[in-house]
Structure formats: C-alpha cells, structure tokens
Design goal:
Layout lengths: L1 H5 L6 E4 L9 H14 L4 E4 L2 H11 L3 H10 L15 H7 L6 H13 L4 E7 L5 H18 L2 E8 L15 H14 L5 E2 L8 H7 L16 H5 L10 H10 L29 H15 L6 H10 L2 H15 L10 E5 L27 H13 L4 E5 L8 H14 L3 E2 L4 H11 L3 H11 L3 E2 L9 H7 L6 H13 L3 E8 L5 H18 L2 E8 L15 H14 L7
Parallel strand pairs: 1-2, 3-4, 4-5, 6-7, 7-8, 9-10, 10-11
Helix pairs in contact: 3-4, 3-6, 6-7, 12-13, 13-21, 13-22, 14-22, 15-16, 16-18, 17-18, 17-20, 20-21
Length: 567
C-alpha cells in the first residue's frame, strides 16, 4: 500500500530502514527490495544501516558480503550512513551499548564499496562527546575513504536532546553545528559532499551552513519518522521541491535535484549547488573597501552599499569581527534579564506590518492599570528580571499622568532598571498633552524613566515609512526625540526592522542617520536590527529574510556604526 502511494510522489530516493527483529530477516528484505524495484523504477533504493546488515547476516548465517550481494541483486542501490553515532569506544559504549563496534560498522561499508555499492556516513554529535572524539570519528572515515573511495557524503547529525536518557538537557548550539560542519568539510577532503539534514534544524541556521562548507541539505522527506521521533520539530521540514528551491535561491545558490548518491540530477549539470558568482569588478571593489575598513577608515554610504550587496559572506564577517574586538574589551558578551510589559494593545496608527495592535473599542482590547503594571514588574523582579521594558499601542485614553503613575510606582517599589517608551510613544504623548518633546521627557524622567528603547524606527527613510506605516512619525521626528533624550542625559538604543522590500541603499541611509546623530550626542548605547516577520500582518513580504541576510546586516551595522559601542 505504501509503495502504491509512493508511485505518485516523484521520488528520487526510497529510504528503507527498520528495527532489528526476527521477522525482518534477509528473505523479508529481498522480497521488499524486489517489489520496490519493480514498482518504483528509476528511484534509488537506499536502505539498511550497517548495523542492520551486520545483524541480518549473522541471523542468516551468512557473511556480510553474501548478504549484500543478495540484496544488491534485488535492487539495493546504496547503504545509508546510519548507526555510526560516534566511533570512539569511550563514547560508543555509553550511547550505543548494544550496537556493533566501530570497526564492524566500517567493515560493512568497506565490503559495500568493494561491491560497487555507494554509501554515506553519519556522525551523531552534540551529546557527551568531546572534540577529540569527533576528530577520531572523522579520521576513521577519511582513512577508509582513502582505501575505497566509496563514500558519497558525510552527514553530521545534531543530537536532539528531547527526553533522552543521556541526561543531556540541550542539543548542540548553532555555533557548534557550524563549526562541526566546517571541520567536516575541511578534514574530509576526500569526501565529495557534506550534507546537513533539513529536518534537524531551523531555516536560518541551515542557510548559514550552506555558506560554511555544506553543499547538500538533504531533501523533502515525505514520510519521515526518525527525526520526528528524535524530537526535531516538524516545522523544520520542507514540504515541496518548490519550497526547497526557493530557500536555496534566496541564499544565492542554484538548486539541483538529485538522489542520495548524486548519480541522477535534474535542473542542473553538477550534483550540488554553488553560490551565485560576483563579477571581477565587484570582487576587486570589495577587497579594496574591506582593506580600508580594516585599516580603520570610516565607511562611506556608497561603499557600505557595495559591501552589503556583494562582499563575500565570510570576509564581511571576518572584518566585522575585528571591529567588534576593537569596540568591546576582551571576549565579553553582555545580556539583560528583561521583562517586556505591554500596557495596552489599543493603537490608532494601524501600521501594516504590526500583528499586535487592535482598534479602540475592539473586544480583544486591553489596558492595564498602573497598579497592575507595578504588580507585574514586582513579579518579574522576583523571578530575576533586571530591566523593565514598558511599551504599548498609541492609545488616546492614556495620558501622560498614566505613564507617570506607572513609572513612579515602579521606581518607588521595585529595584529594577526602567528602560521604557519608544520615541513614537513619546511624540504621541506630547501631542496629546500639547507640550514639547523636551517637557514630556523631563516629566517622564522625573517619574523614574532611566533610558529609552529604540522602537518605532523601522526604516528611517520616509519613502519606506509612508508605505508601511503612513500614520506613524516621520524619520526626522524619531531622530529629534532621541537627540532631545540624549541632551537630557537619557541614554537610548537604536533599532531597525528590515525586510519590507526596502533597498540596500535605504538600509544604509538608516545606519548613516543613526551614526550622524551619535557623532553629535554619543547617547546611543546599542544598535538592534531584526527582520520583519509577516505572519498575521496585513503586509505582504517580498522575500523572507534568512540567516545569511541577518548576519550580513549585523556585520554591516558593526562596520558603519563605528561610534555605537554595542550591537
């Protein structure tokens, strides 16, 4: 029945794997592979881990070679890389106690290669192994590949920590995954491909990996159970070839549809994808610009646009990292334990990109009293919060005295830093009261306000702002509020939401405006960019921003904003 359904799926692979139970013997798999080969001609039948093959051969009283010969005759085209885990005995005996030894796993693959059966190799990392265990694992794979040349891809698998008995609370970090992938690509110099599986990681990390040594991202697994059983969120899956191709193109790659041994490719010539090429003129320009930046020269807006658009991803990050080390002492990375408290969701600006606001009079509208605000802040402080960030909609019913009551109540009753009210809210309150921005800020500061967040900046280009938030304050008004706050010794942050369809030049214009104000006042403590998320908003997203977009934006912000200490 499953094979009949699969006939309509345009498969490249059929990956067959099962448990080690007496019912699944050699005869069972011979019959299954023969049937699959007949019903799915042209589909790569990839099945059986080395662990299963070794077990089936032993139960049948046959050698691994005889077992593989019989399965190959029935249509088996490749052996999957599963069951490798970590080869080192100190780790293997703890995480795979009853599985075959590392050398037995390698011997199965050696025999497969001798029979012209291509295979892949996995490595499960991010649990209790150390760096030396990873290197030992890769060394054994490299040595066998030198002998046989039969491996097609190395597949590092990040451990999923959900509910496992190892006592590991968290899986490997994104940084760890990128490092392991990059090491795999460099160390396994005799492996054609490095594959990371889409089912095991979020899209932004996966995109970064495609620029860090990974040339294959697995595929759209139509009926995949192993990653799901391991605890990987099903939201990580791709559900169609079109979705996957769009993802790769967004990262500057040319997608090629292939199978797991790269002998059948569609929509391309080579069985991998390659980054989009830049022209020689682009490359020469970026090298000159990066060299000037590295020597300490300030970036012009024109040069910043070139770097944002065409600078090599890793080189841009390298120079930005040097600037970061110059700006921040040692290897310090700061953080805050923050409570983000929304006083009201009522707002009259109706920004197209906002999924938070509701109109006055709506059934879903709410407004907290000052007493409720103070109680929530008390509770947050008891839980360990060190900062309170009060924000909300522009609600005509809430006047300046409401916010003064909230702030003074917090100041008098809770030991916490008050970092609250964006420039948009400050301007709205001043207009409602008929007072100046300065007077409004002075009253709020006297009530307990200690610093301002940078919300409401979005993109500080009025052409963009008119399109996405026509009722909201213009760029210069946001900058004026911030300048006044700095004059009153109120430190602030600056933000940018990008991904509305604005140009690179408009993003850089935003950064330059922040830099110019910082040159005058020195009042910005940090710059905070994040990408627009279109879900549940009224605004269509031209293209969702990905992980590489985000890192490029971080890097260019660090280089342009040479006078803002933190990102």
């Amino acid at each position: 029945k499953n094979l009949e359904q699969a006939q309509n799926w345009n498969l490249m692979d059929l990956h067959i794997v099962g448990g080690m139970i007496p019912e699944l013997d050699l005869n069972y798999y011979e019959e299954l592979f023969s049937l699959a080969h007949k019903m799915l001609p042209g589909v790569l039948l990839q099945g059986m881990t080395a662990v299963e093959i070794h077990w089936i051969a032993g139960n049948a009283g046959l050698s691994v070679r005889e077992t593989l010969e019989r399965l190959k005759a029935c249509g088996l085209g490749s052996i999957s890389g599963g069951g490798a885990e970590i080869f080192h005995p100190d780790i293997r005996k703890k995480i795979a106690t009853t599985k075959i030894l590392a050398q037995q796993w390698l011997d199965v693959h050696r025999t497969a290669h001798e029979l012209d059966l291509p295979t892949n190799a996995t490595m499960l990392f991010g649990h209790i192994e150390q760096d030396e265990h990873i290197v030992d694992h890769l060394s054994r794979l490299r040595a066998l590949q030198d002998e046989t040349g039969g491996f097609k891809a190395a597949i590092p698998l990040p451990f999923q920590a959900n509910g496992k008995a190892l006592g590991v609370k968290y899986g490997p970090t994104g940084d760890r995954q990128v490092r392991v992938a990059a090491l795999t690509r460099i160390y396994l110099d005799n492996f054609p491909h490095v594959r990371m599986l889409v089912n095991y990681m979020d899209r932004k990390l996966l995109g970064v990996l495609t620029h860090s040594g990974v040339d294959d991202i697995g595929g759209t697994s139509l009926d995949e159970r192993i990653a799901k059983a391991a605890g990987a969120p099903q939201s990580h899956k791709f559900f169609s070839s079109d979705e996957m191709e769009g993802f790769l193109r967004n990262h500057g790659h040319e997608p090629v549809l292939t199978n797991s041994v790269y002998d059948h490719c569609r929509r391309g010539i080579l069985p991998h994808y390659a980054p989009a090429e830049t022209t020689q003129q682009d490359a020469a320009s970026t090298i000159k610009i990066l060299n000037r930046v590295e020597s300490g020269e300030r970036l012009s807006s024109e040069d910043a646009v070139i770097l944002l658009d065409v600078a090599p991803f890793q080189e841009l990050g390298r120079v930005a990292a040097l600037r970061r080390k110059a700006a921040v002492p040692g290897e310090q990375a700061t953080y805050v334990v923050d409570k983000n408290l929304n006083t009201t969701n009522v707002c009259v600006t109706n920004c197209k990109f906002c999924a938070f606001h509701t109109k006055p009079g709506s059934k879903s509208a709410y407004t907290l009293t000052p007493e409720q605000v103070v109680e929530k802040v008390k509770h947050a402080a008891e839980k360990g919060a060190t900062q309170i960030l009060i924000q909300g909609g522009l609600n005509p019913d809430l006047k300046l005295d409401y916010y003064e009551a909230c702030l003074s109540g917090i100041r008098d009753q809770v030991d916490i830093w008050i970092h609250s009210l964006s420039p948009t809210e400050i301007e709205f309150l001043a207009q409602e009261e008929g007072i100046s921005i300065r007077e409004c800020l002075v009253r709020l500061k006297n009530a307990g306000l200690q610093s301002l967040p940078g919300g409401g900046a979005e993109i500080l280009v009025d052409e963009v702002r008119r399109r996405i938030s026509p009722k909201k304050t213009r760029s210069q008004a946001w900058l004026n509020v911030m300048e006044t706050a700095h004059e009153l010794d109120l430190k602030t942050t600056a933000t940018m939401v990008y991904g509305f369809g604005e140009t690179s030049a408009q993003r850089i214009e935003h950064l330059i405006k922040v830099r110019e104000l910082q040159d005058r006042t020195g009042g910005f403590t940090a710059f905070i960019p994040w990408s627009f998320s279109p879900d549940r908003t009224e605004m269509e997203c031209p293209r969702r921003q990905n992980g590489v977009d985000y890192l490029r934006m971080i890097a260019i912000a660090r280089l342009v904003l040479d006078n803002v200490p933190h990102l």
